[in-house]
Amino acid sequence: MYKPTCYEGNTRPVKTHCSLYEECSHGRWERKACPYGYKFYNGYCVVGNCNEEGQPCVESSGRDGYRRVQHDCTKFYQCVHGKWMEQPCGPGTVFNERVSVCDFAWNVPECGGYLPK
Questions:
Q1: What superfamily in CATH does domain 56-112 come from?
Q2: What sign results for the dihedral spanned by CA atoms 85, 86, 90, 94?
Q3: Tens-place pLDDT, residues 62-108
Q4: What is the pLDDT of residue 79?
Q5: CA 110 to CA 63: how far, in whole Å?
Q6: What residues does each domain of the chain span?
Q7: Number of neighbouring beta carbons within 10 Å of residue 60
Q8: Which residues in 8-37 are b (16+ Cβ under 10 Å) and which e?
């Protein structure tokens, strides 16, 4: 009998950085990140900068080194030398937070099917 490790929609903080959290999806924990300028607090992403708490970003080729730009799917933030730098996606693509790359809009439902010009 299948027994999930968590319950759908539950969240928990990642102790190593205040803007990271995990959300239960299909019985497994998936790591996610709050948008730039937000931190995870009491189950939600709220306005607040982790850098104010002395926690600069850490360069990584994995998901921890990238963040989506809230309200603009065609851009993302990349950690460069301990600071978040805004970067554009290539023409015709949007940032896919699940895989930390720019991708076709139809692969990124949270962008609402937005197709950049």
A1: Chitin binding domain (2.170.140.10)
A2: positive
A3: 777 888 887 788 999 888 887 878 899 999 999 998 888 999 989 98
A4: 85
A5: 17
A6: 1-55, 56-112
A7: 12
A8: eeebebbeebbbbbbebeeeebeebbbebb
